[in-house]
Design a protein that fits this description.
single chain; 9 helices; Rossmann fold; alpha/beta
Length: 208
């Protein structure tokens, strides 16, 4: 992990000391860290606390290594995860390799927090046309085709592990299957408006 990731991890460690147990946790990489879910929940006056423990740039293995700070220390009643897309920045990473790493995270949560309800969020699509030139090579690896294959594998993994595979992507996808240009920042990440567009589909799972 780099210095900024380590600093954020330590900030979370400090925040966890005063956080309420048994609430809702969002964990994952940048697509989760940049989700203003804590603010959305507060504006929505939901009757529970929502904690975002996303860390930009982390890999599935790194979330596994820091699972205490990002998940377990908060003992959530519900956990929403979006992790793994950064693994695809390495061309050699296969969908099978990713699901094996993902399964390790789920197994630890199920063992340590057996009452926690698990929600595996579908990976958001990318929009290669919106990516800067410096990122074009990465977009050849992290394609919507690979993300669709990964989502199908995660849906099977969710069924195997007793989790809920949660796809709320419909409002942010264009007719070609890309992330809508108006919501896309750099080919991969999403503006707040995109998160607001999908929040109504996510909300029922927060309150059920």
């Amino acid at each position: 992990m780099n210095d900024s990731q380590i600093a954020l991890l330590e900030r979370y460690r400090t925040l966890n000391r005063n956080a309420l147990k048994g609430q809702i946790v969002f964990a994952g990489s940048s697509l989760m860290e940049q989700f203003p879910i804590e603010r959305f929940a507060a504006q929505d006056t939901l009757p529970f606390a929502v904690y975002n423990r996303g860390i930009s740039g982390i890999l599935t293995q790194e979330l596994f290594e820091h699972i205490d700070v990002c998940i377990l220390d908060l003992a959530p009643q519900k956990l929403f995860i979006n992790i793994g897309t950064n693994d695809f920045n390495v061309a050699e990473t296969t969908v099978e390799m990713l699901t094996e790493r993902y399964a390790r995270i789920l197994d630890v949560v199920k063992e340590r927090l057996p009452a926690c309800r698990l929600y595996m969020m579908a990976y958001y699509p990318v929009n290669a046309a919106m990516a800067p030139e410096a990122a074009q090579q990465r977009m050849k690896i992290r394609t919507n085709h690979k993300l669709r294959l990964a989502n199908a594998a995660l849906a099977r993994l969710a069924e195997e592990k007793g989790a809920c595979f949660l796809n709320v992507n419909a409002p942010i996808i264009d007719e070609q299957g890309n992330m809508k240009a108006e919501y896309c920042i750099d080919g991969i990440h999403m503006r707040e408006e995109g998160y607001r567009a999908l929040y109504p589909l996510l909300r029922p799972y927060l309150v059920e």
